[in-house]
Amino acid sequence: MTDAINRCSAEETAACCCVDVGTILDNKDCTASYQHVFATQGEAESMLKTLTDKAKSVESEPCVINHSFNAVEGGIELTADFNFSCEAESLIFQLGLR
């Protein structure tokens, strides 16, 4: 008698249209980037604080945050990169922004 369910691996699974999580989240993309133009410096700084607090809430190891404020037509542009220790944290952070 043969098994009705195939043994699972990263390439194939017993269920249709399923893949091993390790195939998708391979820790190659641990950075989440954010860019937006705000009317004032204060609004941009407030958003950076909100984003930083959100990053800290999902990090397992300290998240490295690099940011800049640039004067552009229409206001202040906030650009920030959040470098997490693993890709899952980056994904959780990005999904939390939606």
UniProtKB/TrEMBL annotation:
GO cellular component, one term: cytosol
UniProt superkingdom: Bacteria
Family, similarity comment: Belongs to the UPF0381 family.
The name this protein goes by in its record: C4-dicarboxylate transport protein
Species of the source: Providencia heimbachae ATCC 35613
